[in-house]
Structures are given as C-alpha cells and as structure tokens.
C-alpha cells in the first residue's frame, strides 16, 4: 500500500490516519440524537452497511488523496456506531450492572481488532489474484464482510426499552421500573437546545472528556502504529503482523476482570487510576527499554492497562434535570 500510494512521502500516512477523526468527532453527538428519530436498528445497520461500502471502495483507490477522502467518509459513517451502542446498552440496565455488559461488547472490538492484523496477513496471500494487490484484497474482503454483517444485524439489534418489540408489556415495565428506581430517567423527556446548553455547561462533562482524551491517545498510539513499532524493534513484516495479536488477548482478560470488580465494588475511579498508572509506566518503558523482547512484553502490559473503556459510558441514559 505504501509503495502503490506513496504513503511514506512526507506525513501522508499520518494525514490519512488523522482525517478520519475530524467527522468522527463532529458527528457523534448529532448521530445519537437521530437514534430515536430513525430507530436504533435502522440507523445502526445503515451506518455499518454504509461504512462497509466505503471500506470496500478503499480497495480500488488510485492515489492517497482518494484514500484520505474515503477515510473521512469512514469517520462520518462510523461516528454513530460506538456511542449509539453504548447509549442503547446503558438504557437497559442500572448503573452497576452496565459495566460488565459494556465489557462484553468492548471485548469484541478489542479481540477482533487485535487479530485483524493476522487476518490481514492471510488476505495479503491473495496478492496477484485477478491482478489485484494484496493490500487491496484486505479492504475488499473486509468491506464485503462488514456489509453482510450489517444487513444481518438489522434483524437483531434491540431498540430502546420503551420502544422494544420482543418483550411483553409486563417485562418492559419491569425493565423501566428498575431503571427509574436507579437513576430516574427511564422515560425520555423532550429534547430542547436549552437542555443541551445546560448540560454542556457542566464542568464535569469536560473533565471526563479530557480524561477520555488522555487515555485514548496511548490506546490509539498502540492500535494504529503497533505494526510499525514492532518493525522498529527489528521484527520482519510477517512477524510484526502476527505479534500484534497476543497483546489483545491479555487486554480481553483484563477488561472482564476489572469490569467485574468495578461493578461488584462500585469503584470506577480506583479502577481508572490503577490502570492509568500502569499505562504511564508502560509507555515510559516502551520508549526507553533497549531489548526488543522486553519492549514487546511491556506492550502486552499496556494493552491490559488502558483505562479508556471505563470512561465510555454515561451514568444516565438521557438528558434529564434529575440526571445524577
């Protein structure tokens, strides 16, 4: 890909990687506001199928400029998926039940993300088939799979509790009463600009945003550049792709353990603090260790330590004055 699109010229690779986040950041909140208007299953399935189409198209880009454009479209279409799923999950459970559910959801992205490098390596073996380069096959196959899974998911994605179609009236009332008793926001209130302004003026929201920013920087630094980091340690391309997966296995185990502890003892802040400290130590050791093997072991530890997951869910499910 680097050879065909000249990504190593200047900062092209970093530009292509960065442009994704511009629409991704700007459109997350508007996307969540559309969930009720279009329906959860309709909106999330549309997002998945659409970005699958863009990903497939990335396999045919003739230059890095077109790749950058596709990355921006990918960011725009993916913007609503992660916050939308987190939002819908939190509406079904009380606060200290939700962490383990979110952990199960998050593990899929962590593990699949970790093994995507191995899958990508296998797809590169198709290089030359039908005159298509190996890196293009990665986008084509993964894009097609994403479209198929998005279409399938439309039949299974649940809606908000008060709009669900698979529970009886009695079961629905039970779910809503538990949420109402826990945090008093089981029924959505009307949306107004004044409410948005009032909540955005809450300094705690911005502090949580800053915390999430600080934890996401090392997370993306590893996930986006782990192959390049391993190449820099002296491993071959194939070895770097294969070695990028094991850290995520450790991460998956860590996520479930800490999620259970967080729900069981209702200690969010302590969980975040412990993992933040471990991440700081891991980043420092990765930067200053000289032996490649030890650097790799430290990378395993950093994947276990990333605390960003504990900051992704709200304590309430909708904008209400009584929200705790």
UniProtKB/TrEMBL annotation:
Subcellular location field: Membrane
Record keywords, A-Z: Membrane, Transmembrane, Transmembrane helix, Transport
GO molecular function: transmembrane transporter activity
Major subcellular site: membrane
Keyword DNA repair: no
Topology term for the membrane: Multi-pass membrane protein
InterPro entries xrefs: MFS, MFS_dom, MFS_trans_sf
Domain spans labelled Major facilitator superfamily (MFS) profile: 1-324
Transmembrane segments: 12-31, 43-61, 73-94, 106-125, 137-157, 205-227, 239-260, 272-291
GO CC entries: membrane
Pfam families: MFS_1
Protein name: Major facilitator superfamily (MFS) profile domain-containing protein
Organism: Candolleomyces aberdarensis
């Amino acid at each position: 890909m680097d050879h065909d699109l000249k990504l190593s010229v200047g900062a092209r690779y970093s530009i292509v990687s960065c442009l994704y986040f511009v629409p991704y950041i700007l459109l997350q909140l508007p996307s969540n506001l559309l969930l009720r208007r279009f329906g959860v299953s309709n909106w999330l399935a549309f997002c998945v199928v659409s970005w699958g189409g863009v990903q497939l198209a990335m396999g045919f880009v003739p230059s890095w400029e077109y790749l950058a454009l596709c990355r921006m479209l990918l960011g725009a279409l993916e913007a609503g998926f992660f916050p939308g799923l987190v939002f819908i999950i939190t509406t079904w459970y009380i606060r200290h039940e939700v962490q383990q559910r979110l952990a199960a959801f998050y593990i899929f992205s962590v593990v699949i993300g970790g093994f995507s490098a191995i899958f990508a390596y296998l797809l590169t073996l198709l290089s030359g088939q039908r005159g298509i380069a190996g890196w293009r096959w990665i986008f084509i196959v993964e894009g097609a799979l994403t479209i198929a899974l998005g279409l399938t998911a439309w039949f299974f994605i649940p809606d908000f509790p008060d709009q669900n179609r698979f529970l009886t009236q009695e079961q629905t009332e039970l779910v809503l009463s538990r949420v109402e008793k826990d945090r008093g926001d089981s029924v959505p209130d009307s949306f107004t600009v004044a409410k948005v302004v009032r909540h955005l003026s809450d300094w705690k929201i911005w502090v949580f945003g800053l915390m999430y920013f600080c934890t996401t920087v090392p997370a993306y630094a590893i996930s986006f550049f782990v192959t390049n980091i391993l190449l820099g340690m002296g491993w071959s391309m194939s070895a770097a792709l294969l070695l990028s997966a094991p850290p995520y296995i450790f991460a998956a185990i860590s996520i479930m353990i800490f999620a259970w502890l967080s729900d069981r003892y209702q200690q969010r802040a302590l969980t975040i603090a412990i993992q933040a400290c471990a991440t700081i130590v891991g980043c420092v050791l990765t930067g200053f260790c000289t032996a490649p093997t030890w650097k790799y072991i430290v990378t395993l530890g950093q994947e276990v330590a990333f605390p960003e997951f504990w900051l992704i869910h709200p304590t309430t499910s909708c904008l209400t004055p009584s929200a705790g």
